[in-house]
Design brief:
Keywords: Coiled coil. The protein is of the alpha+beta class. The chain folds into two domains: 2-114 and 228-239; 118-224, no CATH class. The protein is 44% helix and 20% strand. It has helices at residues 2-14, 71-89, 97-106, 108-112, 141-147, 155-187, 200-213, 222-227, and strands spanning 19-24, 27-35, 44-53, 56-61, 119-125, 131-137, 233-234. The strands form two sheets. Strands 1-2-3-4-7 form a five-stranded antiparallel β-sheet. A two-stranded antiparallel sheet has the order 5-6. A hairpin with a 5-residue loop joins strand 5 (119-125) and strand 6.
């Protein structure tokens, strides 16, 4: 019965969005695409539903290799959507895939806003060419994962890499500030002022402040960065042990 319900719901879901369905052993993997054009540069999330039909179980994930988001945001999103979906399933009368997709689509902006520390705002343009505040998501998790593939770096290499990352961040901020000033100048040329470049002393002080906040990631943390904390599974109440 559960398998037949899944087939029926997938046909309805196909009318709403794109997805990929695969099977690993006795488990179905449904990679669900949520696409929405908003004020966020990120317009797509790919949610993985790991489904067992006998016995009925389901688990959610946002694979980092399929989503350009940091671990902090991934965790916040899953913490938000898991209770909603599991409550929606209730005592289980169906997989409720369309209802769940509608929830994800309608709350797309809210989900991306759950971790403010990962957001940077700038003044850009919408898809229709109008000026608007836009948001980009800063993702350092991928850099850490890629860096952890190699042997542990020396202290000198680590601090040199941190310095380079800080300079890249400053350049990115200056670029966004320049874009914002250009948009402001289009509306009122008198507002335009040349963007200020940080002095060497200011950059060093900024780097020291960042170093106090950060904790060095070593190779042993790679698996946690990729998978994150273990997630809950949905099991129908009558089947819970």
């Amino acid at each position: 019965m559960a398998k037949e319900l899944l087939k029926q719901e997938l046909l309805l879901l196909k009318e709403k969005t794109e997805f990929k369905l695969s099977k690993q052993n006795d488990q179905f993997h449904l990679l669900l695409k949520i696409f929405k054009d908003t004020q966020f540069d990120l317009q797509e999330l790919n949610l993985l539903l790991m489904i067992n039909v006998d016995p009925i179980e389901i688990q959610l994930d946002l694979p980092l290799d399929k989503n350009n988001i940091p671990m902090e945001l991934k965790t916040k999103i899953l913490d938000k959507i898991e209770p909603f979906y599991f409550n929606l399933l209730g005592k289980f009368s169906g997989w409720k895939l369309v209802q769940f997709y509608d929830y994800l689509f309608n709350n797309f902006t809210e989900l991306l806003s759950l971790e403010p520390s990962c957001l940077e705002m700038y003044l850009g343009t919408s898809s229709t060419g109008e000026s608007q505040r836009r948001y980009t998501i800063i993702n350092t998790t991928l850099e850490i994962i890629q860096g952890s593939e190699s042997e542990p770096e020396s202290d000198e290499e680590y601090w040199q890499r941190q310095k380079e990352l800080e300079l890249e961040r400053q350049e990115r901020e200056l670029k966004m500030l320049g874009e914002q000033r250009k948009n402001e100048a289009m509306n009122d040329p008198g507002l335009y002022t040349k963007e200020r470049i940080l002095s060497r002393k200011e950059r060093e002080e900024l780097k020291k402040a960042k170093n106090k906040q950060g904790v060095r990631m070593r190779k042993t943390g790679k698996l946690f960065l990729i998978l994150g904390p273990k997630r809950k599974k949905y099991v129908p109440p009558s089947e819970e042990k």
